[in-house]
From TrEMBL:
<dbReference type="GO" id="GO:0008270">
    <property type="term" value="F:zinc ion binding"/>
</dbReference>
<dbReference type="GO" id="GO:0009231">
    <property type="term" value="P:riboflavin biosynthetic process"/>
</dbReference>
<feature type="binding site">
    <location>
        <begin position="307"/>
        <end position="313"/>
    </location>
    <ligand>
        <name>NADP(+)</name>
    </ligand>
</feature>
<dbReference type="GO" id="GO:0008835">
    <property type="term" value="F:diaminohydroxyphosphoribosylaminopyrimidine deaminase activity"/>
</dbReference>
<comment type="pathway">
    <text>Cofactor biosynthesis; riboflavin biosynthesis; 5-amino-6-(D-ribitylamino)uracil from GTP: step 3/4.</text>
</comment>
<dbReference type="InterPro" id="IPR016192">
    <property type="entry name" value="APOBEC/CMP_deaminase_Zn-bd"/>
</dbReference>
<feature type="binding site">
    <location>
        <position position="78"/>
    </location>
    <ligand>
        <name>Zn(2+)</name>
    </ligand>
</feature>
<feature type="binding site">
    <location>
        <position position="233"/>
    </location>
    <ligand>
        <name>NADP(+)</name>
    </ligand>
</feature>
<keyword id="KW-0521">NADP</keyword>
<feature type="active site" description="Proton donor">
    <location>
        <position position="55"/>
    </location>
</feature>
<protein>
    <recommendedName>
        <fullName>Riboflavin biosynthesis protein RibD</fullName>
        <ecNumber>3.5.4.26</ecNumber>
        <ecNumber>1.1.1.193</ecNumber>
    </recommendedName>
</protein>
<dbReference type="GO" id="GO:0008703">
    <property type="term" value="F:5-amino-6-(5-phosphoribosylamino)uracil reductase activity"/>
</dbReference>
<feature type="binding site">
    <location>
        <position position="203"/>
    </location>
    <ligand>
        <name>substrate</name>
    </ligand>
</feature>
<feature type="binding site">
    <location>
        <position position="187"/>
    </location>
    <ligand>
        <name>substrate</name>
    </ligand>
</feature>
<dbReference type="InterPro" id="IPR016193">
    <property type="entry name" value="Cytidine_deaminase-like"/>
</dbReference>
<feature type="binding site">
    <location>
        <position position="305"/>
    </location>
    <ligand>
        <name>substrate</name>
    </ligand>
</feature>
<dbReference type="InterPro" id="IPR002734">
    <property type="entry name" value="RibDG_C"/>
</dbReference>
Length: 374
C-alpha cells in the first residue's frame, strides 16, 4: 500500500498508540504527532488512565512553536473534562491550524463534539484517515462504548486433528513455548481473563500474566494483571484454588439460588468478589448478563480461556468477536476432546468462520477467525 502524506503521519501516530497496548485500560490507546513544514515536531501517546492524553503529551514534547502545525490523532480529540482537561481546548490554545483524525470517539460524552469544538475555533478538520487501522487499536473500548459489551477473544490450543485435551482432561502442553509466550501477551493486553469452573477443577491454573525480562514486546514493569473471572454457576470453587491468588483481582459469577451462603462467606472473606447473573434460557448462567456486568466495570477486552463447554456457550450466545487458535504439530487421537461443544446435527447448522490471519509461531500455526454472525 502506498501511503499519502496524511496516511504516512497517521501511521506514525498509530505506532505511538500501540505503545499503550498493555496499559491504557479502561481508556483507549491513542497516539498523536505534530507536523510542521513536513517535519515531525512533537509526538505523544496515552499511557495510563488519569495521566496525559496523547495530544497533551505531544504538545509537551514539541521542540518548537506549535502554532500553524497539523496534529494527527488516532482518535477524535476529547471535548470533555474527564480525569484530565479537554484535548480540544489544548490544541486550540496551542494554535494548531489543522487536525487530522483517525476515527470519531465512540464515547457518547465526546463523539463528534470534539471535532465540532475544533471547527468552531477555526481549525481545519480532515478525516477519518486510516480509520480501520485506528479502530483496530481499540476493539474493546469501541465495543464497550457502542454496545455495552466487552470484545471477547477466544483462545484455543489444539492438535492438528482439532483436539484440545486427552479424554482424561490432560491438556498440558499441546503447543510450544513460543505460542505460550504469545498467549501471555494476549493475556497482558486483556482487561479480564475468563474461564470456567470445569477448567479450574481440572487444571488448577493461575491465569496470571507471566512476562519475563527478556520479552522485547512487553515491559514487565508496565504489565498489569487482568481481572480473573470464573464462571461458576453453583459457586463450587475451592478457596485454595490457585486462580484465587491474589484474591482481590478475582471475580466469580454464580447463580444466586445455587449458592451456599457459608461458602460464599469464606470466599468473600478472602477478598474474592462474587457477582450474580440470572439463569439464561438454557438454564445455565446467562453469559450475556455477565458480559454486560464486566463492561459496566470498564472491561474492554476479554480473553476467554475455557474448555469446549463454556467456549461453545459463548459462541452460541453470539458473544465471541474473535477466535485465536494455536495449532500444534501433534495428533491426539480420536477419543480426545474437541474445540467447542456445539449441539449441531446437519451441515446447514454449521458455524461459519472467516479466516483473517495465519502465522507461524515456533512450531505452531496461529489462526485468527471471525464468527460469521458479526
Ligand atoms: C483523547 N486523547 O489520548 C485519549 C482520549 O478520564 P479521561 O480524562 O482520561 O478521559 C477518558 C476519555 O477520553 C475516554 O473515554 C475517551 O473518550 C477519551 N480518550 N481522548 O483525546 C487520548 N485517551
Ligand atoms: Zn483528550
Amino acid at each position: 500500500m502506498t501511503l499519502n502524506n496524511h496516511e504516512y503521519w497517521m501511521a506514525k501516530a498509530i505506532q505511538l498508540a500501540q505503545q499503550g497496548l498493555y496499559t491504557t485500560h479502561p481508556n483507549p490507546r491513542v497516539g498523536c504527532v505534530l507536523v510542521k513544514d513536513d517535519q515531525l515536531i512533537g509526538q505523544g501517546f496515552h499511557a495510563k488512565a488519569g495521566e496525559g492524553h496523547a495530544e497533551v503529551n505531544a504538545l509537551a514534547d514539541a521542540k518548537q512553536a506549535v502554532d500553524g502545525a497539523t496534529a494527527y490523532v488516532t482518535l477524535e480529540p476529547c471535548s470533555h473534562q474527564g480525569k484530565t482537561p479537554p484535548c480540544a481546548d489544548a490544541l486550540i490554545k496551542a494554535g494548531v491550524a489543522r487536525v487530522v483524525y483517525g476515527m470519531q470517539d465512540p464515547n457518547p460524552e465526546v463523539s463528534g463534539k470534539g471535532l465540532a469544538k475544533l471547527k468552531k475555533a477555526g481549525i481545519e478538520i480532515i478525516g477519518p484517515v486510516l480509520e480501520a487501522e485506528c479502530e483496530a487499536l481499540n476493539p474493546g473500548f469501541i465495543k464497550r462504548m457502542r454496545e455495552g459489551l466487552p470484545f471477547v477473544r477466544v483462545k484455543l490450543a489444539m492438535s492438528l486433528d482439532g483436539r484440545t485435551a486427552m479424554e482424561s482432561g490432560e491438556s498440558q502442553w499441546i503447543t510450544g513455548p513460543e505460542a505460550r509466550l504469545d498467549v501471555q501477551r494476549l493475556r497482558a493486553q486483556s482487561d479480564a481473563i475468563v474461564t470456567g469452573i470445569g477448567s479450574v477443577l481440572a487444571d488448577n491454573p493461575s491465569m496470571t500474566v507471566r512476562i519475563d525480562n527478556n520479552d522485547q514486546d512487553a515491559d514487565p514493569k508496565s504489565v498489569r494483571q487482568p481481572l480473573r473471572v470464573i464462571m461458576d454457576t453453583a459457586l463450587s470453587i475451592l478457596p485454595e484454588a490457585k486462580i484465587l491468588y491474589p484474591a482481590h483481582q478475582v471475580c466469580v459469577f454464580s447463580v444466586a439460588e445455587e449458592v451456599e451462603p457459608e461458602h460464599q462467606d469464606v470466599l468473600c472473606k478472602k477478598g474474592v468478589t462474587v457477582r450474580f447473573a440470572p439463569r439464561g434460557e438454557d438454564g445455565r448462567l446467562d453469559l450475556l448478563d455477565a458480559m454486560e456486568q464486566l463492561a459496566d466495570l470498564g472491561i474492554n477486552e476479554v480473553l476467554l480461556e475455557a474448555g469446549a463447554e463454556l467456549a461453545g456457550g459463548f459462541l452460541q450466545a453470539g458473544l465471541v468477536d474473535e477466535i485465536v487458535v494455536y495449532m500444534a504439530p501433534k495428533l491426539l487421537g480420536s477419543s480426545a476432546r474437541p474445540l467447542f461443544t456445539l449441539p449441531l446435527e446437519t451441515m446447514s447448522e454449521a458455524v461459519e468462520l472467516t479466516l483473517t490471519s495465519v502465522s507461524q509461531v515456533g512450531q505452531d500455526v496461529r489462526l485468527v477467525y471471525l464468527p460469521s454472525y458479526l
